[in-house]
# Entry
Amino acid sequence: MNLTRKMMLQMTVLILIPVLAIGIGCYTLASKALKEGAQEEAKQMTRLHSEMIEEKLSTMQKLVQVASSNKGLEKVIEGDEASNPTEMMEYLSRVQKNNKGSVEMLILVDQNGNALLSDSKTELNINVRERDYFKETLNTGKGIISDVLINKETNSASVVVTEPMLTVWQEP
# Structure
């Protein structure tokens, strides 16, 4: 092999090794930066979604507070003969329909956990006495927002928002 070719080959190898090292280094740094950036973006999006969900649940809790202040619902719980369960079912139905994207169902429950009526039925065979959200509401006298649960009726993920009707649920 002549001298010119040998020198060209040596120069090519001499240039190629640092270029490859720089290329691998740049690829590694860029890959790491992209991965960290994607992770940070995912964390930020998760935080924002969490805040939106918390705000939505807080709004739902306020809705339940307002809806539960209806005196007709109190009469149903008290078993007052002047109560009108059908009218109260229609009231709950209107509240549910006006908030259909957020409210799956509304149920009126007495202090023993017996469901008295819902937004679609005046007679229910449901008792929530053993549910943690009911126990906590009864024990604290405050409304709560449950963890995510599977709704036994619809088999979908749900969050229960409770609000005690203190004028009715007070101990004698």
